[in-house]
Amino acid sequence: MRYLVCFFFFACFESIAQTAKLDSLQTIVSQNKKDTVHAKALLNLGINLERSDLKRSTESYWAVLNMKNDPAFNKFKTTAAVRLAGNYSATGKLDSVDYYFEKAEALLQFNPNDLKLAYALYIGKGIHYNRIGKYDIALSNYQKALALDHQIIGQDNVAGLYINLANVHSSLNDQNSRMQSAYKALEIFEKTQNKTGLSFAYNLLGNVYYHLKNYNEAEKKFLQSLEYRKLLGDKRGEAVVIGNLGNIYSDMGYFEEAITYFSKAKEINESLGLNNQVGENLINLGKNYEKMGDYESSLSHFQEAQNVFETAGIKTYEAVILADMGKVQRLLSKDKEAYNSLLAASKITSNEKDYGNAVTAYKNLKEYYQEKGEYRQALEAQSKEYAYRDSIGISALQAQLKELESRYALDLKENEISLLKTEKELDRVELDRRKANQNLILAVFIFLILLAGILVNKYRIVGRTKRLLEVEKLRNSIARDLHDDLGSTLSSIHILSQMALQKEDQASKNLFSKINTQTASMMDKLSDIVWSINPNNDDLDQLLSKMQEFAAEILEPKGITCQFEVGKGAEHVKLDLEKRRNLFLIFKEALNNAAKYADSKHLEIKLKVEDHKLNLLIKDDGKGFDLHQTKKGNGLFNMQQRASMMGGSMTIESYPEMGTSIQLRAPIT
Known about the structure:
- By secondary structure, this protein is mostly helical.
- It contains 25 helices and five strands.
- The protein has helices at 23-30, 36-49, 54-65, 74-90, 94-108, 115-131, 135-146, 150-153, 155-171, 175-192, 195-211, 215-232, 235-251, 255-272, 275-292, 295-312, 318-331, 335-351, 355-371, 375-431, 437-501, 506-533, 540-555, 577-598, 634-645; strands at 561-566, 602-610, 613-620, 649-654, 660-667.
- A five-stranded mixed sheet has the order 1-2-3-5-4, covered by helices on one side.
- Helix 5 (94-108) packs antiparallel against helix 6 (115-131) and helix 6 packs parallel to helix 9.
- Keywords: Coiled coil, Kinase, Membrane, TPR repeat, Transferase, Transmembrane, Transmembrane helix, Two-component regulatory system.
């Protein structure tokens, strides 16, 4: 489970850093002078306590709001109302959130030109709506904050805004924008040496690498963040990072360590009264126990998480928990409960148009029907699963088209600006025509050249954009048709052959068993073809993720360990469709050979870019073979052919009992 990490840096009133001693603030508050200095101290006290003592923080904000009605106090009250809404959002008290945001908006009317107060309101609302899953409203508020004057709101606040934008991009599965926002934030915080900001930035980058399954790099970033959190006394942030480390260990199979980390994070969040985070910790514990095969403990934690969210009135995770519970209940043979949970999860995701979770819900429901032999219902569930997969694909295509449109609009805007500048120059020359007729002629000549260049450039942009759209549309259409028509048909044949296998006729069983095997193989190959055609996978980082998934899928069942090393900058390389496909098929054939014939215990895989060439090395510690005494089969021959098609070469070195190494060298362009 991915943690939602929100950043709310406050610079409106020169707030004291979290490392400062609280006693100086408490001394001012204890004097109870009830002036603006007192209000400012209360506000900063609340901000400093947000990450360690939420109850006292809330009480400080209440005290600010209860101060006398005086215009001098309005800016402090506005910020206190926004902060109170944030505290209640974190604890799941949604009615109070709406009340205090409305109060903040009313107070802001007294200081309409205060951009720092406006920033505080926009960022607070963005964090809340992102937390409850209303990403479009969150993004709208962040964009309003980003439009404010950066010099006025301060660089640290700009960096904090990039942190929050990265969280929304993560929720919308826009990993490229997420990574860009994360590094923009880190760049600013490193310049300002803001420890709080650095703790958030490193945690965010850890989540990015975790999503890419680069666990070693993710762990480094999380530990850097944890070091800052402890230095700052940020208990709330410490719990977030500890939970993220638990996710890494769970994915790597270190289940006992994961339990320790999830439990520690839960303990901290319980002490702070953060119901939303406690529920997430319980879900992560449930998933971890499921991976361990302890289904009773898994179900118990899912049910406990469900109770926590229901008590807090949080509905964001309702479908996720039901889908997970249904799967575990099915594994425990609690058929009625499993059916009810899976059906409820499917209905909720359908009603809320939650496409990502709908795919999981209907996939689990399909598996339930297949296990029970109810193949007609399984086909219906599978149809809905594919329909929601298509919806996700359409959303991604729409996002691509919007990006192309925005780039085209930007180019046109630049051309319009150039034209306006030229017209201004022409007016100036016209006024001076009597004194410098020769300059006028020269200016007109320059103007005509610029105008011609602008028109030519405009039509080139239009043509290039149309061609890009046509190519993207064609590739998406091919991928969608293969997925919808052939994929759905093969899957249906696969399920129908399973139905036929239940009959008593042994001869038919043998035939349908072959059909079942062949269709499964065809579905796997079709999945590779669809993946290679889809333009969303043109970046090498997408190919690296697929290569790592395939390596885990083929090697883990055989107990073969794998070290996957990617050279710096390799993930940003773009390959055309043919080279990307050939590279993956060479990699796939090499791993299949190692798994089937090498009798190895460990594989070393290295991918790097040097001198505009792609270098792939796959080396095992298996029994090897004598190249001169072994006939070259279709597999080795095909690998050599694919290397030639890439314009490169492939070298195979192997000796008996000394392992095998395969090295591919091919140009990028």
